[in-house]
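Throughout our pipeline, every protein is held as a single compact record rather than as scattered files. Nothing more is needed to write down the fold, since each code stands for a local backbone conformation. The record that follows is passed on verbatim for readers who wish to inspect the format.
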Amino acid sequence: MGKKFRSLLSYCVGSVISTCVLFLLDKKSEQDTNGWTTVVSKSHNGSYLAKFTGGNNRIRLRIYDARSGKMLAERYYSDGYSLDLEWRRDRVIYQTSDSTGYSEEYIRLPPTYLDWVFARLP
């Protein structure tokens, strides 16, 4: 086998495995020992994967490329109204709340370059 063929085969096998894993995780909810809950949701076209992790009035939302598994955007906020997402063609909408009520925030799809940079900051 040639080097290019092995590389292509490796890429295809990796893609199939990651697609199967994402399929199994779609809308899965689990709770860890600290009482934090993680909800996984996939976009309608299957291009993006979102992971919400929340507990103690704090929520972390991460958006991943479904194919490569790379994190593309990340948001932290307090007092989440809901762990549900609304997927649209050009954005994913999530709800936050505070003392004045709830509001809708969003992350553009595909996420911006700044989203990508900020997701990698410690």
Notes: The chain is about 25% helix and 40% strand.
